Amino acid sequence: MKLLITSLIAFVFYSNAFAQCLQADYSFNGNANDGSGNNLHCITQNGVALTSNRFNNTNSAYQFDGIDDRIEFPVDFDFPIRTWSMWFYADTITAVPSVIMDNDHNNIQFGQTEIVLGEIQGVKNLNFLLGANAFTTQINEKQWYHIALVREPTGSSFYLDGCLVFAGTDTSNDHSIDGFFTPALGTGRLQNQFFYKGKLDDIKVYNCALTQNDISVLADSMCFSVALHENLNKEEFLVYPNPTLGNVIVNVKQESLLKLYNNIGQIIFKKEIPIGKTEIMIEMNGIYFVVLESDGKIFGNKTIVKH
Ligand SMILES: [Ca+2]
Ligand SMILES: [Ca+2]
Known about the structure:
Blueprint: E1 2-5, E2 22-26, E3 43-45, E4 49-51, E5 61-65, E6 70-72, E7 82-90, E8 98-103, E9 113-120, E10 123-130, E11 133-138, E12 144-152, E13 155-160, E14 163-168, E15 184-185, E16 197-206, H1 212-219, H2 224-229, E17 237-240, E18 247-252, E19 256-261, E20 267-273, E21 276-282, E22 286-294, E23 297-306
Parallel strand pairs: 1-21
Antiparallel strand pairs: 2-16, 3-6, 4-5, 5-16, 6-15, 7-12, 7-16, 8-9, 8-15, 9-10, 10-11, 12-13, 13-14, 17-18, 18-21, 19-20, 19-22, 22-23
The structure holds calcium ion (2 copies).
Residues 46-47, 65, 67-69 line the site of one calcium ion (CA).
């Protein structure tokens, strides 16, 4: 099998090992319904409108106007072990904070969960909050990002574009003394201020703690600290020649999902491959990362160079 890599290949669906703990799944493809089977459908409010997603597919994400738009969840997902995963694209980030998601009220048992944007002295920031674990990192307007928050009884972990950016050990379950019992997207816990202007998509809530590798799968963005330093099962597959002039043979011992990333962590190619040899062609010179997944888990990765 010979595959010519020229552009992004259409994404394929495959089952993830962590799918069994998915509690709510909002693809925002045409509506705000929950696709997990639990029927936890969201309610859109004040004109929040369907828009294009990160692949430029129409009616596949929601646009918030920054004035009064919000999307309400039917329940508060107050799980002692939980993961939130989502994509966002902020049109503007200003000195007035804007809230992507706020799950915080006086009866919540396992801590508030908040994702807040704000500008301080010209720097645009993304703020994660889970209980009293907090982390701030600089981001850009008008760019899609994947974020994930993981809460465990021992602490919380925050991920940006598939990479762990913060691990906190606070277990105080901090929360506010007011707020709605059902969380919302696009506004703060009182749901009348801090409105978000931008897009949101693919909101997923799990009642388990996803791992770094799980989140790399969701983010379709290899974390380089994993790609370069984690010693995975490198004998499970062969990749040659390396360096290469263009053709690369990938030889695997199990059916796999092959992903090829460029040197800034963007996925440029994704394909299910059978047991044995698959030949791929790389056109552009550069450094690439071949990542193999099976059942939603990364089992190997290698760096290759195209001259
Ligand atoms: Ca509106
Ligand atoms: Ca979508």
